[in-house]
Amino acid sequence: MNIRLPYVAKVVAMVGILLSLTACGFSLRGIEQPLFEREIIGLNFEPEASNLARNLEYELGLLGATNLKTKVGLDSSVQVTGIPQIRLENYELKTISLLGTLREVTLELKVDAVYLSVDGVRTVKPLSAIQSYQYDAASINTERQQETLIIDQLGVQLARQVARLAPYYLGNTGVQARR
Questions:
Q1: For the domain 35-169, what is the CATH code?
Q2: Dist. CA 164–CA 177, nearest whole Å
Q3: Computed from CA positions of residues 7, 10, 12, 18, in that sequence, does the dihedral angle turn out positive or negative?
Q4: Do 106 and 122 contact (CB within 8 A), yes or no?
Q5: Per-residue pLDDT tens for 20-60?
Q6: Rounded to an integer, what distance in angstroms lies between the CA atom of residue 1 and that of residue 147?
Q7: What are residue 136's DSSP bridge partners?
Q8: Comparing C-alpha atoms, which of 85, 110, 112, 88 is closest to residue 166?
Q9: Helices (H), the chain
Q10: Which stretches of the chain drop beneath a pLDDT of 50?
């Protein structure tokens, strides 16, 4: 009887733990549905925005869009019917610099995200991402390295903004937001 008691105690403890997990609201919910119902999205962008477009492809892939049709160069006469599109227009990187011993640089990345739904609805959203940094001009020259890293970070931030707005502007027949 002494040998069975530890086994029974373990089983009772395991059942108690499982019951306490469900009592606190923990439950396995299964696989989450992707945000996109349609896999194919057209992506059209200026050559200067290629880094932003690459980040946007990644972000859209995370949301469930698996087959992106990309095209470099904006041509307003070319629109594939039946495919919702995202166009990146008016890509602009602005640098504002305050000179002094301690130099402050503000970088602003702007783009107009144009969402073209399958229904023909065109929505333009001007988006931007801003970040500042400081560096000491008297110390080692690392300005270009910092600037390059920050431009990459701004591109990722802007791509996330564009991707998060896509389900709401590409229409019900193409991409839908999760309910």
A1: 3.30.160.150
A2: 10
A3: negative
A4: no
A5: 766 666 566 655 555 565 567 778 888 888 888 888 888 88
A6: 73
A7: 102
A8: 85
A9: 4-23, 50-62, 143-169
A10: 1, 76-77, 172-179
- Token couple for 175: 């991409």
Predicted pLDDT of residue 63: 78
State the pTM of this model: 0.69
Pairing of strands 122-136, 85-98: unpaired
Please give the structure tokens belonging to residue 123: 């929505």
Q: Which residue type sits at 169?
A: Y
The residue with tokens 């990459």 is 152
Task: Give the per-residue pLDDT at 179.
Answer: 34
User: 134: helix, coil or strand?
Assistant: strand
Residue 118: name the closest of 86, 83, 88 by CA: 83
